[in-house]
Amino acid sequence: MPLPWYEEGLRFKCTECGQCCTGFPGYTWVTEEEIHAMAKYLKMSTRKFRKHYLRQVGNRFSLLENPKNYDCVFLEGKKCTIYPVRPTQCRTFPWWPQNLKSQKDWEDAKEYCEGIRDDAPVVPYSTIKKQVAIQENDGCFE
Ligand code: SF4
Ligand code: SF4
């Protein structure tokens, strides 16, 4: 299997700006396991959690967002209020398939992620590969 275009790693360091939790419409997919973990963290029933924080799209569930500014329902200021139990999709940003498709897609992601910078440290291919494997295992981009 040939190595991908980012075999030498990619430059990235999160600045915790919170921009990936807001600003554009989309889906933050969550699994049943993640729903249970988030509900437990917030000390509420999964039933109540679904009602307050999720929307159903087909047979899947996504976190709600503010329709005015697209803030994730769990974003407060620049902070995630459920950080320890945030979904895989959040944990593995910016190593999403759409950002890794090509060098151009990675460059384009700079527009909304300030952590992708030419002076940021190189994240090795082995680390990126692990993040991609976590997404594949979780099925969050299927
Ligand atoms: S759950 Fe947390 S990390 Fe994920 S989009 Fe919402 S605020 Fe951001
Ligand atoms: S947009 Fe990029 S730099 Fe900002 S919090 Fe998200 S991952 Fe970190």
Radius of gyration: 16 Å
Instruction: State the shape.
Output: globular
Main sheet record: 3 strands, antiparallel
Q: What pattern of helices and strands is seen along the backbone?
A: EEHHEEEEHHHEH
Termini separation comes to 22 Å
List low-pLDDT spans. Answer: none
Number of helices: 6
User: Could you tell me which ligands this complex binds, including any ions or cofactors?
Assistant: iron/sulfur cluster
By secondary-structure content and strand pairing, the structural class works out as: alpha+beta
Portion of residues in helices?
A: 25-40%
Total number of distinct structural domains: 1
**How are the strands of the biggest sheet laid out side by side?**
2-4-3
The total strand number stands at 7
What does this structure look like?
By secondary structure, the protein is of the alpha+beta class. It has one domain. The chain has six helices and seven strands, in the order ββααββββαααβα. The protein has helices at 32-41, 46-53, 88-91, 97-100, 103-108, 125-138; strands at 10-11, 29-30, 54-57, 60-63, 75-76, 79-80, 122-123. Strands 2-4-3 form a three-stranded antiparallel sheet. A two-stranded antiparallel ribbon has the order 1-7. It has a two-stranded antiparallel sheet with strand order 5-6. The longest helix has 14 residues, at 125-138. The chain is globular and about 45 Å long. The relative contact order is 0.24. The mean pLDDT is 95. The structure holds iron/sulfur cluster (SF4) (2 copies). The site of one iron/sulfur cluster has 10 residues, from loops.
